[in-house]
Each structure stands twice: as structure tokens, then as C-alpha cells.
Write a structure and sequence with these properties.
Blueprint lengths: L2 E6 L7 H14 L3 E6 L7 H4 L11 H5 L10 E2 L11 E5 L5 H10 L3 H15 L3 E5 L6 H9 L2 E7 L2 H17 L4 E9 L5 H12 L2 E7 L2 H6 L5 H4 L4 H14 L1
Parallel strand pairs: 1-5, 1-6, 2-4, 2-5, 6-7, 7-8
Antiparallel strand pairs: 3-4
The chain binds adenosine-5'-triphosphate and magnesium ion.
Length: about 250
């Protein structure tokens, strides 16, 4: 059965998209089939991480949400573009980078019910092992919709005081509505000289929620500048090891 995992953060730029792309690549490297949805319709980025040029995107998630195309028309097999040999498959549902499309999303939002229906359609049609939702930062109607269909929600934060309060709000909300069944926290960009087990314990105390990964800041990841999938380029890096553990937990 396909597991639906939604990736969130309260603040922007915490590493949601990088993490989503790498988890998908790692799962595919283990032979799994994964669908990745770019539901960050206001600032789409996954197509860049998977080397899918804007010109190659004939239909995107936007058009599906506006009833202008079918789900089959927005599935892109990006496996050959991962830059490493993988026995599984990564199927990307990209969002549009067209200025008018983004403007329309900013002004009108979208019907989250259609997105949820699309996710169920994908699960039914493709029978993949996992469906990963990369989301827009913050809390909005779409956040609620994606956590209502997910089995697991991962909230990412950096060890920055500005991230803490918003993360607490997200955890509290999920706890209050008791959705999704599994609610997990991930710390990212933790300086390498920190005591990682202590960071995990402190965050679990703060949020009352399991912290499934404490990911190190990586100069190599920064230098890669989204030009390649990090974990396939650096298979023995400590960040890759940590992301492997995270990927396994998220789809367990
Ligand atoms: N562990 C890390 N070490 C170093 N740099 C990192 C790490 N994780 C993420 N970054 C960097 O942080 C930046 C933001 O990452 P990313 O685009 O994945 O964030 P995001 O949460 O998806 O942002 P947005 O909210 O805008 O969608 C990227 O430039 C990425 O290289
Ligand atoms: Mg992003």
C-alpha cells in the first residue's frame, strides 16, 4: 500500500524540498517506486531538483487542479534524471513556474479537495510504495488538507528561535485534530559540533513529539546548489546516512 507522507515547516527555506527529493531518490535506490508532488504552488522547485526543464512540462499540477487536464497528463518519470543508478522509480508531479499560473494561485488559492482526490487517484492508478507531498511553508487551508490525507507528517525546523514557536503551533494543531496518525519532527542544518543526541532530547521535550532525525548542516550540500541529488552524489556522507534512516522511518 502506498504511504502518503507530507513534509512541512512553519518557516520558509528549512530544507523541505531538498529533503523530499533526497528521500525519493534514496527510496528509489532501494528499488521502491515513489510519487513526489510539488504542492508548493506559490514557489515550485522540485522540477529543478529533478532536472525537469520548464519547457518539458506540458501540463502541471496547476492545470489538474483547475480541471484542465487529467492526472495521467501530469506524471513525469524523472528516474533517468536522478544522476545515479536506481532500480526503483521516481514519478514527479510538478507545479507550474508560469508567472500567470503563480499569480492565479496567489490570488485564488486552490481547491484542496481536488488535490486530495488527485492523490487518491495517483495511489489507485500507480500502486507506488510512497507518495511524498512537498508543501508550502506555514499554516493554511492546504496544510490542513494535506495532513488530512497523509498517514505521516514530518515538520522540519532549524535550531533557530524563530522556527520554534511556529513549529509548536503546527504540532499543536495536528495534535488537536489528531491528524495525521503519525506526527514527527526533523531538525535540519544542525552545526556538526553540536551534541546530536542532546538536541533530539531537548526538541522532544519542547514539542512533545518524536524527533526522527537530527540532520547536520553540510557545506557540500550548499556547494552542490541543487545541481545534483546530494545523497546519490555523496553516498557515504553523514547527511546521507541520516537521510537514509529518515527515509526508512517515514515509509515504515
Ligand atoms: N542540511 C543542510 N545543510 C546545508 N544546507 C542545507 C541543508 N538543508 C537545506 N539546505 C539549504 O537550504 C536551502 C533551502 O532548502 P529548500 O529549498 O529545500 O527549503 P524549503 O523548505 O523547501 O524552502 P521553501 O519553504 O522556500 O520551499 C537550500 O539552498 C539548501 O541547499
Ligand atoms: Mg521548497
Amino acid at each position: 500500500m502506498s504511504k502518503i507522507v507530507s513534509i512541512h515547516s512553519f518557516r520558509r527555506g528549512t530544507g523541505k524540498s531538498i529533503m523530499t527529493a533526497n528521500i525519493a531518490a534514496l527510496l528509489a535506490a532501494e528499488g521502491k517506486r515513489v510519487v513526489v508532488l510539488d504542492t508548493n504552488l506559490e514557489s515550485p522547485s522540485l522540477h529543478i531538483l529533478f532536472h525537469l526543464d520548464e519547457n518539458e512540462i506540458t501540463h502541471s499540477l496547476n492545470e489538474y487542479l483547475w480541471g484542465q487536464c487529467t492526472i495521467n497528463q501530469i506524471i513525469y518519470d524523472v528516474t533517468p534524471r536522478l544522476g545515479g543508478s536506481v532500480s526503483g522509480q521516481v514519478l514527479l508531479i510538478p507545479a507550474s513556474s508560469n508567472l500567470n499560473h503563480i499569480k492565479r494561485i496567489v490570488h485564488e488559492g486552490y481547491d484542496a479537495g481536488i488535490l486530495n482526490y488527485g492523490c487518491y487517484e495517483l495511489v489507485d492508478k500507480l500502486g507506488t510504495d510512497a507518495l511524498l507531498l512537498d508543501t508550502h511553508a506555514g499554516l493554511n487551508a492546504e496544510t490542513l488538507a494535506s495532513i488530512s490525507i497523509a498517514q505521516t507528517m514530518a515538520i522540519i525546523l532549524r535550531l533557530d528561535k524563530q522556527d520554534y514557536q511556529g513549529t509548536s503551533v503546527m504540532v499543536d494543531l495536528a495534535n488537536k485534530i489528531d491528524m495525521p496518525p503519525q506526527r514527527l519532527v526533523v531538525a535540519n542544518e544542525v552545526p556538526a559540533d553540536y551534541n546530536f543526541p542532546s538536541v533530539k532530547v531537548a526538541l522532544e521535550k519542547t514539542f512533545g513529539c518524536e524527533v526522527i532525525a537530527v540532520l547536520p548542516h553540510s557545506e557540500e550540500l550548499m556547494a552542490l546548489a541543487s545541481a545534483h541529488i546530494f545523497t546519490l552524489r555523496y553516498p557515504d556522507h553523514p547527511l546521507t546516512t541520516a537521510l537514509k534512516g529518515l527515509a526508512a522511518r517515514l515509509i515504515a
